[in-house]
Amino acid sequence: MKMEMIYTLNNKDYVFSVTLIHIADHLMWLRVDDTSLFNNNEKLYYHVLPINSLNVFPIGWAKFNGFDLITPIQYETNINTYEQNRYDLFSSVTHYPKIPRVYLNEVYLLTIYVNIECFCGPHFCSSRLARIPSKFGPGPYRHVIIDMFHYLLSTLSTNAHRALRRLDHQINSEIISNLKTEYIKAAKRSSKLIRPISIPNEPRSVYHYLRYICTQLEACPNLISMIHIDNHCPDKCHILSNTFGMLKVI
Predict the structure, then answer these.
(1) What stretch(es) of the chain map to CATH 3.90.1150.190?
(2) I want to staple 203 with a disulfide (CB 3.0 to 4.6 A). Which of 80, 141, 174, 175 is the partner?
(3) pLDDT of 143-173, one tens digit each?
(4) Residues in CB range of 241: below 8 A, 6 or more apart
């Protein structure tokens, strides 16, 4: 800990920068940072003073009261600030590194893609999937997921109730936990379909959540994904048939 101490040397008062090195009871041991004025007299390097001494002050006391401070050795007094070199600060910068966004609930901006080239399974109508937006977001993850389900419910085929019953069992699943139920209406003017859908509370689990939703609906795990896929699906869903639900790909 750095402090400032008044010390009389050759009938002249100086303000030294000192370092607090030890405290015992009501006494403190101080060492002078710059010993050039002591002529190698090591007895003057260390000083023991009471804690309530009026000769010891916090850092900044000398400057505030207009006294000259004997600073530590190799102390830099000319420090360039941003105001002084603000035009030179970024002059040599040619690349700005991308800082990864942290997962902080609503702060995390989520983007979900509908990869219509992937296998859609028996519960989705491919022509309806092609009519909904191919991208949802970026935005707060909870709003993006709700908006995605709002359109996704309108793409279910005639056996929608069977598919939605699969989603109702997500709460009891061991794969996904910490879910919150949202009531979502299908994006159809004439539809009265409102279903309770479980949404994860943490953004870090969205990726596995979307894959789980797709597999429960017997579709390719990358049909609804955070990754945009053009033609080559990493799960090779082009070789799958309507019996995809039997494969249990997660």
Answers:
(1) 105-246
(2) 141
(3) 899 899 888 888 877 565 666 666 665 544 5
(4) none
Q: Where in the chain is the domain with CATH 2.30.30.140?
A: 2-70
Q: What's domain 105-246's architecture?
A: Alpha-Beta Complex (3.90)
**pLDDT higher than 80, residue 206:** yes
| Angle of the 160-168 helix axis to the 206-216 helix axis, nearest 10 | 140
Amino acid 222 reads N
CB 219, CB 157: distance < 8 Å: no
What whole-number percentage of the chain has pLDDT above 70?
A: 70
Q: What tens digit of pLDDT does each residue of 98-156 get?
A: 444 444 444 467 899 999 888 888 888 888 888 999 999 888 888 899 899 888 888 87
Q: Which class is domain 2-70?
A: mainly beta
Burial (Cβ within 10 Å: 0-12, 13-18, ≥19) of residue 23: exposed
